[in-house]
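Researcher: I'd like a candidate sequence for this fold, 343 residues long. If you have to choose between options at a position, lean toward the conservative one.
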């Protein structure tokens, strides 16, 4: 269900959800483009969002990831820009201040946070138009050292997860030419597993256990009118194409979550201008069916799932480039298996 929230004036690239003000509900950090400042939208607990009044940078921001970067117990923001990336530190009440760090000079596309070197803080893997970079956290939210991984550039998104069950974070690299899996040696140094996953122009990959066998699989969102794909992991980081071809809609991103309450991971996919967003329902074995939902048509760039209204199911915050951002509330708290969610 459309909540009726119309947040911002468009030109939004990415949204990340998290409780930034410590009141127990999920708020939204949204990055904007075309010299529009980034915004923090505070949730009142019922899924209604209010502009916090902060204008955070105007650097053609493309992506944001939230995490406790400085170890003080609240969520900070790592923002990927068309130019130097920035760290915004939270004061614990949802007010952010620029840390003063200027990380790289490249045109960045996306970022993901995770402890890639095993020292118990959050590092950053940044996908750039040129070479990608892995930035290592010093433990206090400052990023001093980086490495250029061998997978290089030409990517749109890098997903982190333990793909081979050895306890560290590996890489699923979504690229405009082919997707790749790179396994972590344990210190944030990566080696390609030798498997090339398709030849589609991929924008995004979401990792999750799609077939219920306990390892991380991949739902890949593809561009250029190519259908989305599902790749199943054998538990060692070797992925097999399920041969599903889901949609033909120039998808920009996907988020995984149990949308219909049947215990498996479904997919909320956001699409290019003029194409409604779609929900794909999982049958529990990693095979997806179109729910029939058609949600907005505002050139959606990203989606984040979370319980925004406190009713126990997963809702969706969608960032749009062509029009204001939207919030979609899920109405299927008691859905049975294979019941279509009324989003």
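Model: Candidate sequence:
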């Amino acid at each position: 269900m459309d909540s009726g929230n119309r947040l911002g004036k468009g030109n939004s690239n990415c949204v990340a959800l998290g409780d930034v003000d410590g009141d127990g509900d999920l708020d939204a950090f949204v990055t904007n483009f075309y010299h529009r400042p980034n915004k923090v939208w505070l949730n009142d607990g019922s899924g209604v969002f209010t502009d916090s009044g902060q204008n955070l940078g105007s650097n053609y921001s493309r992506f944001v990831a939230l995490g406790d970067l400085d170890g003080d117990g609240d969520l900070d923001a790592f923002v990927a820009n068309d130019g130097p990336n920035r760290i915004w530190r939270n004061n614990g009440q949802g007010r952010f201040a620029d840390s003063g760090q200027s990380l790289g000079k490249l045109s960045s596309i996306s970022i993901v946070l995770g402890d890639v070197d095993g020292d118990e803080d959050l590092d950053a893997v940044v996908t750039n138009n040129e070479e990608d970079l892995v930035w290592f956290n010093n433990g206090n939210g400052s990023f001093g050292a980086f490495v250029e991984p061998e997978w290089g550039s030409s990517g749109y998104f890098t997903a982190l997860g333990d793909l081979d069950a050895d306890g560290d974070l590996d890489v699923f690299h979504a690229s405009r030419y082919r997707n790749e899996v790179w396994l972590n040696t344990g210190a944030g140094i990566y080696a390609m597993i030798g498997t090339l996953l398709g030849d589609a122009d991929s924008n995004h990959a979401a990792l999750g256990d799609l077939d219920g066998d306990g390892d991380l699989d991949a739902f890949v969102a593809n561009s250029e009118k190519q259908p989305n794909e599902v790749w199943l992991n054998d538990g060692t980081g070797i992925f097999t194409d399920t041969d599903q071809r889901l949609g033909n809609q120039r998808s920009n991103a996907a988020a995984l979550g149990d949308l219909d309450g049947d215990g498996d991971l479904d997919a909320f996919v956001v699409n290019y201008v003029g194409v409604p967003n779609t929900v794909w329902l999982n049958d529990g074995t990693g095979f997806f069916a179109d729910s029939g939902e058609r949600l907005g048509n505002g050139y959606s760039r990203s989606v984040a799932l979370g319980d925004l209204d406190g009713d126990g199911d997963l809702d969706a915050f969608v960032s749009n480039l062509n029009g204001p951002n939207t919030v979609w509330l899920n109405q299927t708290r008691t859905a049975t298996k294979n019941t279509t969610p009324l989003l």
